[in-house]
Amino acid sequence: MFAGDLDIEAAVSDLANAIPEPLRPLARIAFDYRWSWSVDGAAVFESVDPDRWTRVVGHTPVRLLAEAHRSTLERAAGDQ
Question: Count of CB atoms within 10 A of residue 19's CB?
């Protein structure tokens, strides 16, 4: 383990527990910058709430998942 690993794990767990179950895998991905290396990485998060992704959270997936309205997250979870 590296310094900070436990903090990241706790943050991932907290975020995952705050969003609908079908979206919970996105919590771990949001804290790992490898999503940004994928051609479609940003599109995954943008699809949750396109307006918030662009205007409000500045392409920050952790903020998107933490701040999106529950109804928006549930709609996105239903689109899976």
Answer: 21
Alpha carbons 43 and 46: distance in angstroms, whole number: 5
pLDDT tens digits, one per residue of 29-56? 999 999 999 999 999 999 999 999 999 8
Q: Give 73's contacts (C-beta < 8 A, 6+ positions apart).
A: 19, 20, 23, 48, 65
Provide mean pLDDT across the span 20-33.
97
The full set of domain ranges for the chain reads 5-78
* Helix extents (H) in 19-60: 25-30, 41-46, 50-51
